[in-house]
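Office hours follow-up: a student asked to see two folded examples consecutively, so here they are.
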Amino acid sequence: MKKISLCFLGVALMLLCQHSFSQKFFDPSVKKVLFLGNSITYSGEYIQLFETIYRLQNPESKVEFYNCGLPSETVSGLSEEGHANGRFPRPVLFERLDRVLKMIHPDVVIATYGINDGIYQPFSEEHFLKFQEGIQKLHQQVEAMGAKIIHVTPSVYEEKKNDATFNYAEVMDRYAQWLIAQKKWEVIDTHFPMKKALEEAKKKNPDATLASDGVHPNSQGHWVICRNMLTYFGLKKAKNAEVWTELYPNRSVSNLLLLFQKIQARHNILKNAWLRATQHTRPEMPEGLPMDEALTKAKALQIEIDSLLK
């Protein structure tokens, strides 16, 4: 009886370990996850971190991640006077959204907008309404093609000018609060956790920052975004992690960083290829590779990624 009990205990512990390691994140029917957003999404570090950790949790998964972020983009259709020194107005998502959805056919869309939609001006009811209308249109258009949409609140804005005449950070607070208030939607709040993380960092170092230019998060800022997304999807151990590598103490840091670098390289090839294939119209963007060439390079990197996951 003692041997049988020990046997059952061993099986139970094995199943517990397997359960704690695996974290599915998505319904089994999900095959394609599309990220939409502006320059923060295009830079993509939070997406690359998210996929790295997803792969570590689910090494056998075949879910594909697509980054179709486009710098400067809005859902509001607004553009401040003199944007890009007058070279071109801000692009609007709806010029390209239909093409992106039809070409990729995502099962889940994760969309992050807002930081550009206030066009870096004092709070305006008109601008706010345009943002709300754009988000609602995005939501409806994604659902109409049969995909699920998850909204992400905009990043924190860090005011860098001592002589600022208004507080754009408070404008973004209001945009984030509105999104969070949409109770029938799935919304991941990264805005207020970023704000809290910044406040805590400044207590230790007044010069601490998550975005040196006020807008674009540094690596720590991207990790704060990512860890709140991971927590939303059920990976509770990510909630208080200072750095992502501490989630995997049984793996060498060099192995983890190499895995991340390979996933990052794969994303950087494919994001520009997808922007090219879906015919974005924003000027001054890198020329993506033709899709067949990009996929060939991505496949070679995937072989290396799979090897590192073993």
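And the second, which I mentioned at the end of office hours:
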Amino acid sequence: MNLKSHVTFSKQQRHGIFLLLVIIAVLQVVYFYLRFSEPEIPVKSAVIASLEREVDSLKRIELNNRTPKLYPVNPNYFNDYRGSLFGMSNEEIDRLLAFRKEGKWINSVAQFQSVTQVSDALLDSIIPYLKFPEWTKNQKATVSSTEKILTFAQKGDLNTATAKELRVISGVGPVLSDRIIKYRNRFVDGFISDIQLQDVYGLTPETISNIKKEFTVKSPRKINRININTASIDDLVTVQHIDYPLAHNIIEERTLREGFKSWDELKKVKGFPADKIEIIQLYLQIE
């Protein structure tokens, strides 16, 4: 077999191959030249600066939207959450809550600072949001000059009062009186304590105060208080305002702390309704 005939090119074929190589070389040079000689796109620094300012502005708007809005509020209705929004410490909030538990009212900015002991700097930031209704200013004078304070024996029993009897209270009309009775009847033997009036929808602190001047729980419902340091999840969910997720969080916090020593520790539980602590305490005890 003659192999030479398979590897030998004619003169015309050799010229064709040479021309093909030349074309490939030329194309490579053209590609290289075009690749590295593309004109640079000019970028104006002023345009970049403008875009950066717009991005920063959008970021600030987003941060402002995430920040809780502050509105004028009566400091007599402060709770742990509201106080924290205004930058108050736990100690300052506790002083205010203890003052209110005594049935006293904050009537001025000066009294607010005297009770809470907030700093002058913090007070200056809170003042624009403090709102004092006229009735809080006149509360003390009204009680001392026109009202007769009833003793426990003289008051009516909140667990036996009728809707008609409740309607004589200032601020309690047919709707609220019926609502109080319906809420009371949800429990066998009625209320445990006057504090449960806080759970009746529509009752303001002022109206509750007016009710307690004429009525109180004189025949409280009997309950067996649960030891929170040994209670199971099923035990805890029998308590008002405690559901399964909260009961789970209470058990978890209790384990971490190796038991609760005070009610303040219970307030640290994730999702705990601190404004309902007094009602929850009716069902629990710390041992």
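Two things to take away from it. Confidence is low (pLDDT under 50) at residues 140-146. Residues 102 and 209 are 12 Å apart (CA to CA).
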